[in-house]
Design goal:
about 400 residues, alpha/beta, CBS-domain, three-stranded mixed sheet, flat, AMPK_gamma/SDS23_families, CBS domain-containing protein, CBS domain
């Protein structure tokens, strides 16, 4: 049974998944911002057909087809806008080529053939991949819909390499699949996490409640890369909240001004509960005025008043082409599902299966580990959980395969 589990083709995990929507790497950051909002996506894939640039590996450069080289989300754009020179002129900053947001490491997104095994997918995750790009089976029933998406969304594409569609396979998908077969690696699943060597203390990124939120920017970028979060602690080292890329991903670009002007503790309140309190909005405006960041101030005022956002920075199609009149544009927090900044925690003696269920039920890729008194100990991520479950089953499978071969 375990052999069947880990040698199962990754295409089995892609059934029912939507096709990736993508932008060319030649697009601008403004194009990506509009695409994320109008499509309601958390991430949008970035594709490149120039195989001599943009950090493609030697193997990938030898691959003749277009490649997905990265993914971009609101957090990438927010961190970019938080820089002083970009806050002073956000509209100009959004004209910057999208390629500046592509990380130097090319391993976060990897291509994998649909007939590859689940064990192959786990190996790539262990090497640092966050998303695996898998070709979808073609379907004549969806061909007309493909054309509609292509024609309507102008610079947004779902088709590559001879009209093939692709999907993401994520760490969450694999963990969910492994959880459904949790009995195959018992009693490991019932063991406490502090006995499995998966509590990560090295990547325990934390700020004090009164620290400037801007000091979290390097941590936010790093946590996005490793799919973790930034802990906010009090003077006793007790966990009081988090600045999570997954929460920021549901915010709008005006939160860049909040990060640049508020404390870490105030930022928690700013992004929590579906919208910023009025007193914090006024505090952000005051501090922007003191720093003569007039255009950033205009951005905050547009959102706080519910006004439409200027699209002069983008060459994307008009709202009418998306079936959206000006009065129906996105309205920031009020029209979007927002996660609270309350941190999700477990204890060193919590079992692996309990932590897996906790993370999956809350749609996060990590759980903070705290002591009885709330003192921060570390963090457990999907990558760590996968390392345990994958290693247990992988060793078992490889042993069975070797035994079966007579060697």
């Amino acid at each position: 049974m375990a052999v069947s589990l880990l040698t199962r083709q990754v295409s089995d995990l892609c059934l029912g998944k939507p096709a990736l929507k993508s932008l060319s790497i030649s697009s601008t950051i403004g194009d990506a911002l509009l695409a994320l909002k109008r499509l309601g996506e958390n991430f949008i894939s970035i594709w490149n057909c120039d195989h001599h640039h943009y950090n493609l590996s030697a193997v990938d450069r030898g691959f003749k087809e277009c490649q997905c080289v990265s993914k971009v989300c609101m957090v990438n754009i927010i961190c970019f806008l938080c820089k002083e020179e970009h806050l002073s002129n956000p509209a100009t900053a959004l004209q910057t080529p999208l390629s500046v947001l592509i990380p130097k490491s090319p391993c976060l997104v990897r291509h994998l053939e649909p007939n590859a095994s689940l064990l192959d997918a786990i190996d790539l995750i262990q090497e640092g991949a966050q998303n695996l790009v898998i070709p979808l089976e073609s379907s004549s029933k969806t061909s007309s819909r493909k054309k509609l998406v292509q024609g309507t969304l102008s610079n947004i594409s779902t088709l590559h390499n001879n009209n093939r569609q692709y999907c993401w396979l994520t760490q969450e998908d694999i963990i969910r699949y492994l959880l459904n077969s949790i009995g195959l690696f018992c009693p490991t699943a019932a063991n406490p996490i502090n006995s499995l060597d998966i509590i990560d203390t090295r990547n325990k990124m934390a700020l004090h409640y009164d620290d400037p939120a801007s000091s979290a920017l390097p941590f936010i970028s790093r946590s996005l890369e490793i799919q973790a979060s930034v802990a906010i602690v009090d003077s006793d080292g007790k966990l009081v909240g988090e600045i999570s890329p997954f929460t920021l991903n549901y915010c709008d670009e005006d939160v860049a001004a909040a990060i640049a002007t508020l404390s870490a503790g105030d930022l928690l309140a700013y992004v929590d509960c579906g919208g910023p309190p009025e007193d914090l909005v006024q505090l952000v405006k005051k501090r922007l005025q003191e720093r003569n960041l007039e255009q950033a101030l205009e951005l905050v005022e547009e959102y706080s008043s519910g006004a439409s956002i200027s699209t002069s920075y983008s060459s994307s199609s008009s709202d009418d082409e998306f079936g959206m009149g000006r009065s129906a544009r996105w309205m920031g927090y009020s029209a979007r599902v927002v996660r609270r900044s309350e941190a999700i925690v477990c204890y060193p003696w919590s079992s692996l299966v309990a932590v897996m269920i906790q993370a999956l039920s809350r749609r996060v890729s990590y759980v903070w580990v705290v002591d009885d008194d709330g003192t921060l100990v570390g963090i457990v991520s999907f990558a760590g959980m996968m390392k345990v479950s994958g290693n247990v089953q992988g060793l078992w499978v490889r042993g069975v395969l070797i035994e079966g071969s007579g060697t």
